[in-house]
Description:
This protein is 52% helix and 15% strand. It is built from 28 helices and 14 strands. The longest helix is centred in the C-terminal third of the chain and has 21 residues, at 579-599.
Amino acid sequence: xxxxADVKFEIGHVLFVDIVGYSKLLIHxxxxxxxxxxEIARATEQFRVAEAEGKLLRLPTGDGGALVFxxxxxxxxxxxxxxxxxxxxxxxxxxxxxxxxxxVKEVTDLNEQANIAGAGINTAQRVMDxxxxxxxxxxxxxxxxxxxxxxxxxxxxDLGICEVKHGATLGVVNLxxxxxxxxxxxxxxxxxxxxxxxxxxxxxxxxxxxxxxxNLSEDKANAYFADGIQEEILTRLSRIGDLKVISRTSTxxxxxxxxxxxxxxKQLGVATILEGSVRKAAxxxxxHVQLIDAxxxxxxxxxxxxxxxxxxxxxxxxxxxxxxxxxxxRLTGAERRAISSQPTKNTEAYQLYLKARHQWRNFxxxxxxxxxxxxxxxxxxxxxxxxxxxxxxxYHAFGAANAILPPAHWPAAETALQKALExxxxxxxxxxxxxxxxxxYKRDWPAAERAFLRGAELNPNDGEIRHHYGLCLVLFGRSExxxxxIALAEQLxxxxxxxxxxxxxxxxxxxxxxGAIAYFTTTLELQPTNVVAHEHFGDACERKGMLHEAIAQxxxxxxLRGQPEQAQFLEQTFAASGFDVAVRALAQKQLQQLNxxxxxxxxxxxxxxxxxxxxxxxxxxxxxxLAKTVEEPNWFALQIKVNPILDPLRSDPRFGEILGTLTLKx
Length: 666
């Protein structure tokens, strides 16, 4: 194996090419378009000459590739021009290109295959990423070289600076004429211009984000404990109305991040950052924290705590109090009591509670039942542990509200949440979940709204309460108020995929399909494997008449659900027989699956039968299951009035009659 010193760098002149929207194409279309692009590139004179002289390196990628010309800086530009002209005969093949000259090296990858690496490759890709279909973009370095030649100068159009990955910036130039290229300003530059004109939310001095605490325990299974301590401190700080505190679901993306503290703070919209580490061994705990002023990356305060496990609440309270003092936050008497609370004296119960919260983040993934067991065991060890009752209530309420668990779980949810509030009537999470009990189970909207407002009052920094409340406001026709709540939630939890998913669904209900698609796109950028986001994305595309894109998104959702054969079936049927036939055929298969689950004794919500019969075009059965959906105590019943998917049924008089049976206390 050669050493690092033996690897020789050289300057390569790189043309990076990819197919725009490649991931949304069906599998056979991906292969066809990639093959056509290869043929076009290989047919260019620059490609043939450089390859014949042994002065061309090729790096294939999933949706395109890079061509590295060894000794001629004009070669990649000439090649791009030839490709662009040839593409005019293939309007369905949407390609963008980026060009840069920089260091490259030939390497051997893990598969012992020849490969290419280096900053020249990476930068060319970043330049390309700044463009849209049809663009030929050059780095400023390449443009400066070309500007020395009279034939290139009229074709160079400076775009300015583009921000790329990890906060880096690049000078970019657009290359075009009437015969090739794309004269339009790339969307990325338009977005940045709009962002500059749009007034940004000012960063408040009294604002903070707690980055995930590092687990320094020898037993790596104690990761739950480090996460739990961070979340508990965050919860205490969130109770302080004079502070802006970013939710854990947004700070989690910066776990083990190499980005600088100022950059992270800027993305989160805060002035200060808290970093920390936790080491746990038996009943000994060491917690180290440091508060950082993001503007100048300087320490405001730091502390190390070596305590017994029984003293962990005092540590959490002390950290919260000292942060509040460092940020000069005004605290009410109730807030002081909240951040100094000690919900249990039983350390085993507390650890079980933290394990349950840690597992809860997987939602209803395999093994989720362990969440309920942890909470129940914690309650057995300390019958006065209010947050444990709240956690147990969350298990039952969340599952029943989303039809994951049968309606029989509602009474257990209500009992647990009422007990939690009986023990501690300041638990914001319990009020949030109680709002779900009041609305979806008891169908008492005024009681639910009171619970939402009380929860938000107790924890003004809880983004989840606000985005859930915003959704419910939209369901009840108070759209402006609902969207205002979503906007507040985004400030508190900017990188939470669930929030963007909710916001997209809200805009879908409001028939703003472009806005919905924008939110679903953001959701998938944050969490590419989000099954529901792909499904909802497909729904929005269908409403816009983007049938090809709808099929692609639904196929992605099916594949991620572990049903690749269903995805393949949908794709093949669409290709052979069209959209309507494909949707009906898939619905027939899904109906069969629902019946099989019901036969096995599994709970299946009426909503899923309603969707299947609606896709089948069986109006009579759809109306029958619509009536059953209204009767079921979950959130699906409340979206009937606004969900566009149900529009085919609205003209039938029976639809209004069934909707009229949805009685709510107002």
